[in-house]
Design a protein that fits this description.
This protein has one domain. It is about 10% helix and about 40% strand. The strands form three sheets. The chain has a four-stranded antiparallel beta sheet with strand order 1-2-3-4, with no helix packed on it. A two-stranded antiparallel sheet has the order 5-6. The longest helix is centred in the N-terminal third of the chain and has 4 residues. It comes from Senna tora.
Amino acid sequence: MLDCRDRKLCDGSTDPNKEPICGRPLGLKFDTKKCNLYIADAYFGLLMVGPNGGVAQQLAISSHDGVPFQFLNGVDIDDQNGVIYFTDTSTVYQRR
């Protein structure tokens, strides 16, 4: 689960210096079958907010099979089987 952040600091902020603290969501996908919102965030990885809302849960944080994530930016769901796909812009460059 994400660290608790002060909403006053992050809500509505466009300050790029706050991105490492507040996050930078770049991809969103709503799962109509499970009513979950999936978020690809450049700083916090793959996140999910459940049907009751609340704080986003981290699903994939930093790597897969030893390959580190650098810049997650897109997410999609296969409606047939529920598989979640996400993209990582670069294995070299990072936003952080």
